[in-house]
Write a structure and sequence with these properties.
alpha/beta, seven-stranded mixed beta sheet, about 1450 residues, 41 helices, elongated, nine-stranded mixed beta sheet
Length: about 1450
């Protein structure tokens, strides 16, 4: 070590230049100067010697700085990396490691990674010019391509369909599915795809079976991996403890001896934060004060006249780091009183990091008393009573202040009967494990004594020596040397507090110099700090030191601190052999320590090891790979009287081979004996006196078959332009288990001045560096603002608390980069589609297996004779005329407003007369002829119904259209315009208010208002009769058109004939038992599907009275619908999911108030949710539970099922068995299979039957591809046959093929005669044990989801709702979620219901949960405000609109994370 120079062609630099270079290095590493300033000053210093380094390529000089004096000379054979210590507060890097990292980075081409995007305050709106009229040549059901969608702001009112089409303007590029790719988002996704295309890891062949379907890959050992080849190690034996020197029998006896024979001798000096000695405790004072405390503890503390404490009781010691004197008195006072001290940190707030675990330790130790000082007690958080507050998770404690004035003086001859020689517990030291749990290591009196003797012998301590102690005196080496061994040798300890070190890092060196100390106890960090501060301190001398004990010398990175320190201070009298690294652990106490040569120690040694070898647990002295190496120093010899061996980490602890890494075990009389109160772990760790050294294992992360040390990864991260970016070098590395493997997470504090670009660039470089040097992927890299990571008591990072926050989503990072694509290599193999089994063999297979074909039907219509006159009429117009004639004053409709008052009513005759007036106006003013289409653009109300029948009266075909929303014209008006154009409406019937809106200036900004057809307002049309009411020539004539936007964003209109319309009304009448005497309440939108039929058709057909509640009114009065149900005693009521959700959320806390108002729902026989999706069980159940208090019967709530080809397939009705629920395996569903499981089993998914199949309806389950029939409980497409099926899509050029495919499909085998309509929904039929109305076994239909919506990923079929349910469960601030795919990437959009700064917590949680539960890697996570995910009137998510909005950059997201 003596011949250190700078490796400049072997020419040595003068000492002062070397010193200045070292200072410069450190300034740069601390961020005190910029890189530019550093290079300038350095060039100046080296200018004279520059000819010597001409050989170096100038382009490398900036990157690979010429190694400064912080490393060995050119003569030394191995280079070292530098890195200080586990105290993770301030670290620095070595040039070699930096060079290794920079070289690794240079190997990577600048790969373009997509940078995450954060919210921009201003959003660019797409302009009106980008709208073009619809392109009429597209595939029929989607008549919407060619219009661009505007950005959404608030979630639309319940009433507005987000039917904004997909597509784009002419200037944009288009992808295959008609989505614009001109946006920034798409280019980022393209970058992401390019990044992911790189082959990452070799494909893995082997699998283990995870339960059922999905095979998770299990990583196989690499055949070329290094294996240990050495001979078996032998046990190392330390020298025997010397006999012969007369030693006192115990520590307390020693203290008594010094206290009585050497009372003036100094024992301990305490310093304040300026470095002044505040108090020196002499041995005499020390002895008398400890006695006084012991006497008080034993005699003055009582509880109901019983002594409060018994011998062996545990007592907490709560003393600040700045008060060693009081701590020492308390510690020895407890030993004298035969109590067991448990030293802990001072809790500063009620929620300190790790404080709960400390509370658990205190509770498990049965601690009820805490000793502290007056000053410390005043600083503790207080409750209102003035008492010390109860800390979270802590047992109730009494606090005793032990300052002199509070203690009682013992009688002259009093002496405690302390036994401190046996195997009883002397003290308990706390330690925190990797997971964050706190355990207490019990140290018996025998070990305590043996440890003091072994340390005295190993360190050669002699009487009255001075020791400078910079460590925490409450635990570990600080306690063993500075509190215990020092008393045995009557030493004088000068304790340097952490606060003083922060203020003046040089203080400990000044004290060594001032007190001429022979020994000092430090950590690598303290040496590093003093290097930063040593400029201008020319007069310090370290020549008095004979031992500088480095307590964390076992950390592989402390070597650089030792070397750099020696380099600078050798000129100030520091001898190289003085530096003595040691290794210790709470369990084994001191394991090994390097002795100075005068105590017989051999010369120090180093080894340069291959990091790749180490990751496989093998020691290889590195020869060729200069980049990924680890330099380690020895930690001296085994302790006197101890035996040490190295055993294998896994399995039975056999001895390791000489070139194998294992755990060190110690057998000695001087170790801990148990974890307090934890018998199970104690057996593993302390039996046979074998003690693990877990110092290294705490940071161990096992990914796949390799191990990586957290500290090594931190060093690599720090070597990437460290101080420019990471705040004070604060980086935490830990692993989390996701999908059966450890995943590495790196969290760093970024400097306050770092820009977005800086941070992203730093993150991508760190990933590349770690990948290159450690050959391991980082799962998540998170940056948090400076000073926000939880701190350990002495300033480091509290790793386990950081991990806890990461997993709970409370870390609040300001930047996140996830790399699941790169690191998760054990996903199941993508599913290969098997060559299909033919439909015939399927039938045969089912027959052989005894399975029936999955077919079911409602009751037969022919057998249901009802006496009602209405069924004699084929046309609804005839029914209305007949009712107006026979029961003119019978009320059919009541419309309620938000206040619950009736705003309009219609009896049979009133409705008939209003319809006549509309018909007359259409013929005269509109000059329409029979068969013309008329758009009815009305708000929900009686006007709409009258206009509908008016159209039927004059032979026109009505099309109901939701009016545009005045506050949201940009989004809603184009939809209206599109339906009017696509349906070829010759006229628009509407109200005055809507007419004004359609022609307004605002409307002109959204659409071309000159191209509207005739607009008639029906508010004041003259009272005229029509000459004759039109009668259709046949029942198959078109009655009306039903337009609706599917959740996939497709606008589809279907044709309903008069025959189908009557059949639909009849089925519903029979299922719900509707008669003129009945009242039903409807809270639905009247524009399409079953909602329209219930609102406009059924009352006229069945004659029952409908109470109409427009869902829009619930926004101003949530309880309107339920109050109406109660007031009109409705037996049957219908609503949508959005209405049910509004009631559940809005009335949750108000059931009591409603009951007071007399709301009673016991009248309800059936409450049906009108839906075109899988039943939302969670919502219906919470609704039932919530309103049970208002009398809602438990079995009343059910759902209906309809779709475009048939608007009402299932409907619960009033008779028949209750809906059943089954549980299926979600993983089997992905493979298109149904596997029934028990409730609560893993991966189970509840499915509820969608009501009963309507009379006259037949349902069969067909294979999606072969179109063959399937067996019972098999998943396939639901096909339906019924008299009320729609007759086809209404398209401009009626495309026959699609029409035939959807409306007149035939099975490929079996019953090939029946014509079926394909619903486009996956589901299955299952025969239950229940009996249906006709007495047969009941067949239940379960809807799984829409085929159009499913995501094909990894060869499997996923339903978005399943992924969304998992994501919503991941964190409480996720209000809503929607998923879709884009170029095979899974995009997850979550609405954040919380603070924007918490947004980034969700990225990792969302990625984790989707990986764990669905084995899918999320490609993009988009975090948006509540209400951004568009929802249609039925409460369904419009995922395709969301996708288009995302790709067109219109969502104004808070954050977009592109997972690598």
């Amino acid at each position: 070590m003596a011949d250190r120079g700078c490796p400049l062609e072997g020419a040595p630099l003068p000492a002062e230049v070397r010193e200045s270079l070292a200072e410069l290095e450190l300034e740069l590493s601390e961020g005190d100067i910029t890189q530019k300033g550093y290079e300038k000053k350095r060039a100046k210093l080296l200018a004279r010697y520059i000819p010597l380094i001409q050989g170096i390529d100038p382009s490398l000089q900036a990157e690979h700085r010429i190694p400064g004096p912080s490393q060995t000379t050119a003569v030394a054979p191995k280079q070292q990396k530098s890195r200080p210590t586990t105290s993770r507060d301030e670290r620095f890097r070595s040039d070699v490691h930096t060079e290794a990292v920079q070289a690794a980075l240079a190997k990577y081409k600048e790969r373009k990674m997509p940078m995450p995007s954060k919210r921009r305050s201003v959003l660019v709106h797409s302009s009106v010019e980008t709208y073009t009229p619809p392109d009429l040549h597209s595939a029929p059901p989607d008549v919407t391509t060619g219009l661009v969608e505007h950005s959404y702001f608030e979630r639309p009112q319940v009433a507005s369909v987000r039917s904004v089409p997909r597509g784009c303007s002419g200037s944009m590029l288009e992808t295959a599915d008609g989505v614009p790719v001109n946006s920034r988002v798409s280019s980022k996704i393209q970058q992401l795809l390019n990044t992911l295309k790189r082959p990452k890891r070799p494909p893995l062949k082997e699998f283990f079976v995870d339960d059922f379907e999905e095979l998770l890959e299990v990583q196989q050992p690499d055949p070329n991996q290094p294996k240990p080849e050495g001979s078996e190690t032998s046990v190392l034996r330390g020298e025997p403890l010397t006999a012969g020197v007369p030693r006192p029998p115990s520590l307390l006896a020693t203290l008594q001896r010094w206290g009585t024979t050497q009372p003036k001798s100094p024992c301990l000096t305490a310093l304040d934060t300026t470095g002044k000695a505040t108090y020196t405790l002499t041995y005499g004072k020390f002895w008398s004060r400890s006695l006084k405390l012991a006497y008080t503890l034993l005699n003055k503390l009582t509880n109901k006249n019983e002594p409060l404490l018994k011998p062996g009781d545990r007592v907490a010691l709560v003393f600040p780091n700045s008060d060693p004197v009081m701590f020492m008195v308390a510690f020895y006072g407890c030993l004298l009183a035969e109590l067991v001290p448990v030293p802990i940190e001072v809790p500063l707030t009620r929620k300190d990091a790790g404080s709960q675990q400390v509370g658990f330790l205190l509770g498990s130790c049965g601690v009820s008393l805490a000793l502290t000082t007056d000053a410390c007690q005043k600083g503790l958080p207080k409750a209102q009573t003035g008492e010390v507050a109860a800390f979270k998770g802590w047992p109730p404690l009494s606090w005793l202040v032990i300052d002199g004035k509070h203690l009682a003086k013992p009688p002259k001859d009093w002496y405690p009967l302390a036994q401190d020689t046996g195997t009883g517990t002397a003290y308990i030291e706390y330690k925190t494990s990797k997971e964050g749990s706190t355990v207490g290591v019990t140290v018996p009196h025998t070990s305590l004594l043996a440890q003091c003797r072994a340390l005295t012998q190993a360190c050669g301590y002699s009487e009255a020596e001075t020791l400078i102690n910079v460590l925490d005196f409450k635990r570990d080496a600080g306690l063993w040397h500075g509190v215990l061994t020092s008393v045995m040798n009557r030493m004088h300890v000068v304790s340097v507090p952490y606060a003083l070190m922060k203020a003046n890092p040089l203080s400990w060196i000044q004290k060594v110099c001032y007190y001429k100390a022979r020994a000092a106890l430090v950590k690598s960090r303290d040496m590093h700090w003093s290097l930063l501060a040593q400029r201008g301190q020319r007069d310090v001398s370290l020549s008095s030191l004979r031992m500088l004990i480095v307590a964390d010398g076992a950390n592989p990175w402390s070597i650089s601190s030792c070397d750099a320190f020696l380099n600078v201070f050798q000129s100030r009298g520091l001898r190289p052999e003085v530096i003595c690294p040691c290794a210790s652990s709470p369990e084994a106490l001191t394991v090994a320590i390097r002795r100075p040569p005068d105590l017989g120690g051999p010369p120090p040694r180093k080894a340069v090891l291959s990091m790749n070898g180490l990751s496989y647990g093998v020691i290889r002295v590195d020869t060729e790979e200069k980049l990924s190496v680890l330099t380690v120093q020895d930690v001296g010899q085994v302790m006197p009287g101890a035996n040490v061996c190295v055993v294998k980490l896994e399995g039975t602890p056999y001895l390791c081979k000489t070139d194998e890494v294992g755990e060190i075990c110690v057998n000695s009389s001087a170790t801990g004996t148990a974890y307090y109160g934890l018998l199970g772990i104690t057996k593993n760790v302390f039996e046979d006196n074998l003690v693990f050294i877990v110092g290294k294992l705490d940071g161990l992360m096992v990914t796949g078959v390799r191990r990586h040390n957290a500290d090594d990864v931190v060093a690599t991260a720090l070597a990437v332009e460290p101080m420019k970016f990471v705040y004070r070098g604060r980086i935490a590395v830990f692993s989390v288990t996701v999908l059966h493997d450890d995943r590495i997470v790196l969290v760093a504090e970024q400097r306050p001045d770092a820009s977005e670009e800086d941070s992203f660039q730093w993150m991508s470089r760190v990933l590349q560096a770690i990948d290159s040097i450690h050959q391991v992927g980082v799962y998540c890299l998170a940056l948090v603002p400076a000073n926000t990571l939880p701190k350990a008591p002495l300033g480091g990072i509290h790793i386990s608390e950081t991990k806890q926050r990461f997993l709970e989503g409370t870390l609040h990072p300001c930047n996140v980069l996830m790399c699941p694509h790169t690191c998760v290599t054990n996903l199941p193999k993508p599913r290969q589609k098997q060559p299909e089994v033919g439909p015939a063999s399927m039938i045969v297979g089912n027959l052989v297996a005894g399975k029936r074909i999955a077919q079911a039907s409602g009751r037969e219509l022919a057998h249901l004779e009802d006496s009602d006159q209405a069924r004699k009429f084929l046309f609804l117009a005839d029914v209305l005329q007949w009712r107006a004639h026979t029961t003119p004053d019978h009320p059919l409709f009541l419309l309620l407003n938000a206040k619950g008052t009736v705003t309009s009513t219609a009896t049979c005759v009133q409705l008939h007369k209003r319809a006549e007036r509309v018909a007359a106006a259409l013929m005269e003013k509109g000059r329409l002829s029979v068969g013309d289409h008329v758009a009815l653009v009305y708000p929900p109300g009686v006007d709409l119904i009258a206009a509908f029948y008016g159209c039927l009266y004059c032979g026109c075909v009505p099309v109901t259209v939701r009016p545009p929303h005045p506050q949201n014209l940009g989004t809603t008006l184009p939809t209206v315009k599109m339906i009017v154009e696509v349906s070829k409406s010759a006229c628009v019937l509407t109200t005055q208010a809507v007419t004004r809106l359609l022609r307004s200036k605002e409307a002109a900004a959204a659409v071309d208002i000159r191209t509207w057809p005739t607009i008639l307002d029906t508010d004041d049309i003259p009272k005229k009769k029509v000459a004759s009411i039109f009668r259709p020539p046949s029942p198959d004539v078109l009655a009306y058109l039903d337009f609706s936007v599917s959740t996939t964003g497709i606008l589809a209109g279907v044709k309903m004939s008069h025959a189908a319309t009557s059949a639909l009304c009849r089925s519903i009448k029979l299922q719900c038992e509707l008669y003129p005497s009945r009242q039903i309440a409807i809270c639905l939108d009247p524009y399409c599907g079953l909602g329209f039929a219930l609102w406009c058709l059924c009352s006229v057909y069945s004659g029952h009275q409908s109470v109409l509640v427009p869902p829009l009114e619930l926004e101003s009065n949530v309880s309107l619908w339920l109050s109406a149900v109660s007031q009109y005693k409705a037996r049957v009521t219908f609503c949508s999911y959005s209405v049910m959700e509004m009631c559940t959320k809005g009335l949750g806390a108000q059931t009591g108030v409603l009951r007071m108002k007399g709301v009673n729902l016991s009248c309800v026989r059936t409450c049906m949710v009108v839906a075109e999706e899988r039943p939302r069980i969670a919502l219906t159940q919470s609704f039932s539970k919530l309103f049970k208090d208002l009398g809602l019967p438990a079995r009343a709530v059910s759902t209906t099922f309809g779709c475009r080809v048939n608007v009402a397939i299932c409907l619960q009705g009033t008779a028949g068995p209750d809906p059943t629920t089954v549980y299926v395996d979600m993983r089997a569903l992905r493979h298109d299979r149904v596997r029934l499981v028990e409730r609560g089993s893993p991966h189970s998914l509840p499915l509820m039957e969608s009501g009963k199949i309507l009379p006259g309806v037949k349902v069969i389950i067909a294979h999606t591809e072969t179109k063959g029939p399937l067996g019972d409980s098999h998943l396939g497409e639901i096909w339906v046959s019924s008299p009320h099926n729609a007759t086809g899509y209404y398209t401009v050029y009626g495309e026959e093929a699609l029409h035939a495919d959807h409306f007149s499909a035939r099975l490929s085998f079996g019953d090939t005669q029946t014509t079926w309509a394909r619903t486009g929904y996956l589901g299955f039929l299952r025969r239950t044990e229940l009996t249906d109305a006709s007495g047969g076994r009941h067949d239940a239909l379960y809807v799984v989801g829409s085929l159009d919506e499913t995501l094909e990923l990894r060869g499997m079929r996923y339903h978005p709702i399943d992924i969304e349910t998992s994501v919503i469960r991941a964190h409480r601030s996720i209000a809503e979620c929607a998923v879709f795919t884009w170029t095979n990437l899974l995009v997850v959009v979550v609405e954040l219901d919380g603070l924007e700064q918490d947004a980034l917590d969700l990225v990792a949680l969302v990625t984790n949960v989707v990986l764990e539960e669905h084995y899918l890697v999320v490609g993009v996570v988009v975090i948006v405000d509540p209400g951004v995910i568009p929802i249609n009137s039925r409460g369904e998510k419009q995922r395709m609109h969301l996708r288009d909005g995302f790709l067109a950059d219109q969502l104004d997201p808070i954050y977009v994370a592109y997972n690598m």
